Amino acid sequence: MAEEAVIDVRTVPKPERHPHIIKAYQQLEVGAGLILVNDHVPEGLRVEMFREFADAVGWEPLESTEDEVRVRISKQASTSAPRVVLDVDELSAEAETSGSVWQLPPQQRDLDANVIALTPGGEIREHTGPDLDVLIHVLAGAGTLETETGTIALSPGQIVWLPRRSRRRIVADAEAGLQYFSVHQRKQGLTITARG
Length: 196
Hints:
Elements: E1 5-8, H1 14-26, E2 33-38, H2 43-53, E3 57-61, E4 69-75, E5 99-103, E6 111-118, E7 123-128, E8 134-141, E9 143-146, E10 151-154, E11 159-162, E12 167-172, E13 178-185
Parallel strand pairs: 1-2
Antiparallel strand pairs: 2-4, 3-4, 5-6, 6-13, 7-12, 8-11, 8-13, 9-10, 9-12
C-alpha cells in the first residue's frame, strides 16, 4: 500500500484551506486516504465534507497534540454518496414568511432544488422564467398558477412543468398559503429571495 500523503495546512491561509483539502480528497483513488495536519479540530471541514460527499468520506481522528491536530480522510466511493436530504414531513406547512425555506445543500451539484413557501395570499409576481425547464411538486396548501393562456389550480400532490422562458405568476390561497418543491438544472448565480 502506498504511503499516504500528509497535508499540513497550518501555514496555508484560512480561506484556502478547505478548497485545498477538498481538491486533494477528490484526487484520491477509492480506498486511499490522506493525513490532514491542522492547528485546530477541523469540525467545519468535517461538516462541509459530509454535506458534499456524505458516506463517501471516511473521517478518522488520529493521535494529536494541542498544536497539531491530525485526521485521516479517506475516499470510500468514487462519487458523492446518495442520501436523504429532506423529509418534507419535518417542514412546517404554515409559512410565516414567503420565500425559499429549504435548498439542496451540496455546492458541487448539477441541480438546484428548493422548497418555496408562500404565506396566505402571497405571490410570486408575474415574470418570464429562466432559460431552463422547472418542475414543481405542490406539497401543501393551495393556489393558482397564472400563465399566458389561462389559470391552473394548484393542490397537493400535483407535479407541474414550467417550460423554459414561460410567463407565470403563482398566487397562494388566501387562507391555506402554498408550499411547493422546485427542481431544475443548476444555473450559476440564480438565487431565490423571499418576498414579504
